[in-house]
């Protein structure tokens, strides 16, 4: 999550725009004369319950009666003349316009400033929203203008494909297994068209799975053939989804031996392999992913990515990609109709692209959510502060 705090009246400039100008422009956009919580979104507004939870949480945390302003990223960037989309990793983002510091908890404001990036008087908190709140707040549609790294990644298909689907996964994850069996396996032929590519990324959730990922990464370094690695990953996940039994280290080793004729010397690659796994796991978290599978659909033509987490059936996945990119992947699907078994009750709407308000929720629930949010802010800010020392 990000936290933008515009503090007047310093004269520091960023990209030729003074902090005073930024502050006055935001006041004008929000029609606000007091301290204001700002939610910055792109493509689609966050659900109403997220907005309400953040508003109540920050008001409690800062002990202030904050006004609320929801701003489209395009409008904000054009108004203040600052490029936010390539400096803030994940949207929606949250900001604060502080006009009167006498009506706010200065100690907590100082804590927020200490864990924020600074652009003149514009401070940006380093964590995405879900991680800031210990994943207690889930947003089903997040967006990024920062493409994930392809360095050392296992890419199946053309790395320059219009659509790249980054899959942050853990071999012990049962929902990753279902995703591969029901969705990825049905779209794999599309990677031969140049329209789409699948990018395997490590996201370790179960510590005991690390040796399995290490051997697969070592295999890739040995053969430099992403399809061979992908075929093994596919088989492991499909067997897991069908049997309910996660893959063992011996099974991974045997499949690699069968594919390569030998088992790679893991010690030869160990340091590099561990670095890749750690970096990709951190990368997943930097995009606000709290669990596996984490999915980032990157549209190279538009220069933007859609982030969501969890298993979705084939029909819903196709709808998500079509609404986001305009490309219909259904023409590339292969295999039996098994992929549609789970779709009847779950594809009525495509929430990662068409997020809206949730049904009415009792006031006591809002109060509980607000307290949790406020407590989470305090805990995470303290943690980030300690980590920076």
Walk me through what this model shows.
With 389 residues, the protein is an alpha+beta fold. The protein folds into two domains: 3-138 and 358-387, no CATH class; 144-340, 3-Layer(aba) Sandwich (Glutaredoxin). 42% of the residues lie in helices and 17% in strands. The protein has twelve helices and 14 strands. It has helices spanning 19-30, 48-62, 73-80, 106-114, 129-132, 174-187, 210-223, 226-243, 249-260, 266-286, 314-325, 363-387; strands spanning 3-7, 13-14, 17-18, 36-41, 67-72, 93-98, 116-119, 122-125, 142-144, 154-156, 163-169, 196-202, 294-299, 304-309. Strand 2 and strand 3 (17-18) form a beta hairpin. Helix 2 (48-62) packs across helix 12 (363-387) and helix 7 (210-223) packs antiparallel against helix 8 (226-243). The longest helix has 25 residues, at 363-387. Residues 1-12 and 336-366 have low confidence and may be disordered.
CATH superfamily of the largest domain: Glutaredoxin
Radius of gyration: 23 Å
Query: In order across it, which strands form the biggest sheet?
Result: 5-4-6-1-8-7
Tell me the strand percentage band.
15-25%
User: What is the N-to-C succession of helices and strands?
Assistant: EEEHEHEHEHEEHEEEHEHHHHEEHH
In round numbers, the mean pLDDT is 82
By oligomeric state, this entry counts as: single chain
Number of contiguous helices: 12
The N- and C-terminal alpha carbons lie at a distance of: 21 Å
- If you consult CATH, what is the topology of the largest domain? Glutaredoxin
């Amino acid at each position: 999550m990000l936290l933008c705090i515009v503090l007047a009246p310093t004269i520091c400039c960023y990209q030729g725009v003074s902090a005073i100008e930024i502050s006055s422009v935001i006041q004008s956009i929000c029609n606000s004369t007091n301290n204001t919580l700002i939610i910055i979104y792109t493509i689609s507004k966050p659900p109403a319950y997220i907005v309400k939870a953040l508003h109540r949480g920050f008001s409690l945390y800062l002990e202030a009666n904050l006004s609320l302003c929801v701003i489209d990223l395009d409008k904000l960037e054009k108004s203040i003349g600052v490029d936010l989309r390539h400096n803030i990793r994940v949207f929606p983002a949250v900001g604060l316009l502080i006009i009167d510091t006498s009506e706010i908890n200065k100690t907590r404001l100082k804590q927020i400033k200490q864990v924020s990036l600074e652009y003149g008087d514009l401070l940006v908190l380093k964590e995405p929203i879900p991680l800031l709140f210990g994943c207690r707040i889930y947003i089903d549609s997040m967006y990024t203008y920062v493409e994930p790294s392809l360095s050392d990644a296992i890419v199946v298909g053309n790395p320059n494909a219009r659509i790249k689907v980054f899959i942050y996964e853990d071999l012990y994850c049962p929902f990753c297994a279902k995703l591969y069996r029901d969705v990825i396996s049905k779209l794999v032929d599309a990677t031969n068209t140049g329209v789409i590519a699948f990018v395997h990324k490590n996201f370790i959730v179960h510590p005991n799975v690390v040796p399995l990922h290490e051997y697969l990464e070592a295999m890739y370094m040995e053969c430099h053939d992403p399809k061979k690695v992908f075929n093994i990953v596919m088989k492991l996940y499909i067997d897991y989804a069908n049997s309910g039994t996660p893959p063992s280290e011996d099974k991974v080793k045997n499949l690699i031996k069968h594919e390569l004729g030998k088992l790679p010397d893991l010690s030869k690659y160990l340091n590099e392999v561990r670095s890749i796994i750690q970096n990709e796991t951190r990368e997943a978290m930097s995009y606000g992913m709290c669990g596996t599978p984490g999915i980032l659909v990157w549209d190279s033509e538009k220069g933007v990515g859609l982030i969501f987490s969890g298993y979705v059936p084939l029909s819903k996945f196709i709808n998500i990609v079509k609404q986001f990119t305009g490309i219909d992947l259904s023409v590339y699907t292969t295999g039996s109709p098994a992929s549609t078994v789970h779709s009847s009750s779950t594809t009525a709407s495509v929430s990662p692209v068409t997020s809206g308000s949730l049904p009415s929720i009792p006031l006591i629930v809002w109060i509980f959510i607000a307290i949790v949010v406020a407590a989470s802010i305090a805990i995470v800010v303290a943690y980030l502060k300690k980590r920076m020392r």
